[in-house]
Amino acid sequence: MAHVLGSAYLFNAGADHLNDIYSAESKELEPWQDSPNEVSTYDWRDYLGNPKYQRAYVDFFEDQLVLNGYDWRKVLEEYLFKGKEPLINNLISGLGHPLIHLGYAYELSSRELAMEALGMVSVSYNHMHKYLDDPAYTKPSTNPSKSPLELLCRLQKDHRFNNLFADPGSLNIETVFANHQDLLLEYWNAWQVSHPTEDFRASQIAATALLVATHKPHGAAYDFFLCHTLTSSHAVRILLPLLPAKYHIPLVRQWWLLTLSVYIAQLRPEILLRSISDFDLRGRDWGWVDKEAVKGKHALDAHYVKALRAMKMGKETWGDEDGVWLKAAVRFGEGFEGWGGFGVGEEG
Questions:
Q1: Who's near 117: CB < 8 A, 6+ residues apart?
Q2: What are the strands, taking DSSP E only, across the chain?
Q3: Which residue, 4, 196, 269, 315, is most buried by CB atoms nearer than 10 A?
Q4: Separation of alpha carbons 113 and 52, rounded Å
């Protein structure tokens, strides 16, 4: 709920629309469940990765917030960055939602969201942290590239990934890591991130292309999981100027690991860049995008609004001389009719 409320607020939505979002989103929330026990400063890492401790973790971090005089950045410094295996190296767990939540915490300067982000990364903590914590997984590439988009197009044509899965869906992500780790890491290590600002711009263009340029028109749904590569990229954009410099490249490489695993899990749809570059705006501008985000027929869809804002902020950050950001946003906004890409047993 916080993500769409924050996005709509930053789109200058009025109070009535924010109330409408709250009413719609609150119906989808699960009831708050008590945890088996509390966590403390002595054992808080013992329950990492256990979703039953969601409430205990949020309560714990909120208590730490009070003890630190409501200085939420100080709490993050203590629990996100410190330790041999700091939580910051696992923000992409849970389909990147801890990363996205932390981005909104900084963007909205919200101590509540910051503590929730700590709780979120704690309960979704998983094996993905090892790829950042253990330098043995980072190796020189025999076929490197400075372009993530080039690597994604190369991956799409790589026959070694054919027939790994019968259907798309997020459940495939775990199988990618469990059974095809070497292939995944081949592409992960192939992206040469040497200039964080310039290279991150390229990654945001790639994330936009993954959502918009893989979509086939005429009623097809947009891929729900590829959308997360864009919204998590937006979170990285927010965080990079605000986090310690030593985490900049690792954070971008986290996003890349998530993006590769999701793209493989979703059966590597072809990226048709001309579907963006050749798109006819027919006079529509960013004012049209803003209106769609807060007054359009999908203005209550959280991921729709978040995706539009991620593309708008791409333009605000990098400029848009060739119109790519605007064309992508209008194409997405105009053609959106719902989400797809779900696997068997996954709810849309």
A1: 98, 101, 102, 105
A2: 222-223, 339-340
A3: 4
A4: 20
